[in-house]
């Protein structure tokens, strides 16, 4: 165990919520990816869903190339939403507690039918404008945080490593500038 | 497709649930937590993506040595390798601006809806709009390029 008070204080400042919820959450994200990969051989990413779902309503060739995978991608996304709800009904609602889970203080909690739900304070215009750029960028850049970040990095793909370094660096710069301009939250 | 194993979609569904539960548990489904990381107020977030990458990396490395093909599809186990070109940099930079502005990425947005974040529908609407805009533009560009080539 680390007992040096200077180190402990530095760790508390850098990791005010500890690291266990992040690490355990990451292991579960990885486990979900592995379950699908073991059974199907598919390294599933989340952002292709945006284009494959558009193939139901648009006959543009760019979307039609995903017709073969659009049904299971819909199922994957439905699972992710339900997984979030399962988390809300257990840990977020306080029904299950663990020393590995740090609740945190962001956003606002509200209750529906005994389940504690959570909603963000980040302003809608940031979410909408940012969302547009996420939709354009992930599809042109061949992947998102799960496609490049989890599956690509897990594959030791140089393309994905460069992709991750690019979006991570630009995102840090953007968030710092937006915060410096006084936009919060 | 239609001749796929009956357990194909159920497995994808269960995998998605575990995946989404992890995004909720890690708080990556909360834009504030992502923004706190990008502003260096809480450096825990990389444990999510890199933790997941290590777990999947072990499977990607081991499975091809254990089995030739996946049981539910018959597909060979392959790593996720995509060709590098300028698009990876351009798209990555555009994604980076969007992620830095909103604090949300596609998978985390789906999970965020599940934890009750109705406001995230703004981000999801934006993502579909952005994906549509680039797809519309690229479909047209590709059709024009094909037409120009065949006319030569």
Per-chain topology:
The complex is a heterodimer of chains A (185) and B (152).
Chain A: H1 5-14, H2 20-40, H3 48-54, H4 61-64, H5 70-92, E1 108-112, E2 115-119, H6 124-140, H7 147-154, H8 158-180
Antiparallel strand pairs in A: 1-2
Chain B: H1 8-25, H2 31-38, H3 46-66, H4 86-102, H5 106-114, H6 121-151
Helix pairs in contact in B: 1-5, 5-6
What does this structure look like?
The complex is a heterodimer of chains A (185) and B (152). Chain A has helices at 5-14, 20-40, 48-54, 61-64, 70-92, 124-140, 147-154, 158-180, and strands at 108-112, 115-119. Chain A has two domains: 1-120, no CATH class; 122-185. In chain A, β1 and β2 form a beta hairpin. With 185 residues, chain A is mostly helical. Chain B is built from six helices and no strands. Chain B has one domain. Chain B has helices spanning 8-25, 31-38, 46-66, 86-102, 106-114, 121-151. Chain B is globular, with a radius of gyration of 19 Å. With 152 residues, chain B is mainly alpha-helical. At the A-B interface, α2, α3, α4, α5 and β2 of A face α1, α2, α3, α4 and α5 of B.
């Amino acid at each position: 165990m680390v007992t040096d008070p200077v180190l402990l204080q530095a760790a508390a400042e850098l990791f005010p919520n500890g690291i266990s919820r992040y690490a355990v959450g990451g292991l579960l994200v990885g486990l979900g990816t592995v379950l699908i990969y073991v059974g199907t051989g598919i390294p599933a990413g989340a952002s292709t869903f945006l284009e494959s779902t558009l193939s139901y309503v648009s006959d543009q060739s760019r979307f039609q190339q995903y017709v073969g995978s659009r049904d299971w991608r819909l199922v994957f996304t439905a699972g992710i939403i339900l997984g979030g709800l399962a988390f809300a009904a257990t840990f977020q609602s306080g029904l299950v507690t663990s020393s590995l889970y740090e609740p945190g203080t962001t956003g606002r909690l509200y209750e529906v039918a005994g389940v504690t739900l959570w909603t963000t304070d980040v302003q809608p215009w940031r979410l909408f404008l940012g969302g547009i750029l996420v939709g354009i960028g992930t599809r042109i850049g061949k992947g998102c945080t799960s496609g490049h970040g989890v599956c690509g990095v897990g594959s030791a793909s140089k393309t994905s490593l460069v992709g991750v370094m690019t979006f991570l660096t630009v995102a840090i710069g953007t968030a710092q500038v937006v915060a410096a301009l006084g936009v919060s939250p | 497709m239609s001749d796929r194993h009956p357990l194909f979609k159920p497995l994808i569904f269960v995998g998605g649930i575990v995946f989404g539960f992890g995004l909720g548990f890690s708080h990556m489904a909360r834009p504030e937590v992502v923004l706190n990381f990008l502003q260096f107020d809480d450096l825990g977030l990389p444990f999510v993506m890199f933790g997941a990458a290590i777990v999947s990396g072990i499977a990607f490395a081991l499975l091809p040595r254990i089995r030739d093909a996946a049981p539910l599809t018959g597909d060979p186990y392959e790593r996720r390798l995509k060709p590098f070109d300028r698009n990876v940099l351009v798209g990555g930079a555009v994604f980076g601006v969007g992620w830095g502005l909103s604090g949300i990425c596609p998978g985390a947005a789906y999970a965020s809806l599940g934890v009750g974040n109705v406001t995230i529908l703004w981000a999801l609407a934006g993502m579909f709009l952005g994906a549509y805009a680039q797809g519309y533009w690229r479909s047209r560009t590709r059709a024009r390029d094909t037409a120009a080539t065949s006319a030569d």
